[in-house]
Amino acid sequence: MSNSSSIPTIDILKNQAKNLRAVRAEQGDAVSHSRSLELVAHAFGFRDWNTLRAASSEAPLPCPVAAGERVNGQYLGHDFEGEVLSAKALPETEQYQVGVKFDEPIDVVKFDSFSACRRRVCLKINRKGRTAEKLSSGQPHLVLNLPGSEREEGS
């Protein structure tokens, strides 16, 4: 079995399987996608794809924000400034769970007759600091203005 530091990332391994599948198809020996993944695993000395994937040297990308960091952006269409209370990468995804404490409470209700203010939220974001969940307008629930990334309305 190979040393995990010598195993390529999952993306490279998947590319190798894709290329193997294409070459085999050109030679008239078509194989399924799953079979090509298994063949790549065997080439690296592993019994199957799942074992190779678990041993891969790929580490999750660090969260784009860190606990204690000051942030600003929009939550449900309201501008805010606040502090990141918690931040962690979620396994097997390209998402991060972040907890944010707003400096000023945000009223999340759009009715004049009553209010519901939030001071803290805990949401899943992507590398761009945006939630997958969106308002009916298409704007993400949370948009963090991250250093080095341009603000993209609606994305």
Description of the molecule:
- This protein is α+β, with helices and mostly antiparallel strands and 155 residues long.
- The chain folds into 2 domains: 4-55, no CATH class; 70-144, no CATH class.
- Helix content is 23%, strand content 27%.
- The protein has 3 helices and 5 strands, in the order H-H-H-E-E-E-E-E.
- The protein has a 5-stranded antiparallel sheet with strand order 4-3-2-1-5, with no helix packed on it.
- A hairpin with a 6-residue loop joins strand 2 (78-89) and strand 3 (96-107).
- Helix 1 (10-26) packs across helix 2 and helix 2 (33-43) packs across helix 3.
- It is elongated and about 70 Å long.
Q: Kindly give the count of domains.
A: 2
Largest sheet, in brief, is: 5 strands, antiparallel
**What structural class do the secondary elements suggest?**
alpha+beta
Give the H and E element order: HHHEEEEE
Fraction of residues in β-strands: 25-35%
Separation, N- and C-terminal Cα atoms: 43 Å
Count of individual helical segments: 3
Shape: elongated
Number of strands: 5
Helix content: 10-25%
**If strands are numbered along the chain, what order do they take across the biggest sheet?**
4-3-2-1-5
Overall pLDDT metric:
86
Query: Over all CA atoms, what is the radius of gyration?
Result: 22 Å
Which regions have little confidence, pLDDT < 50, spanning 5+ residues? Answer: 151-155
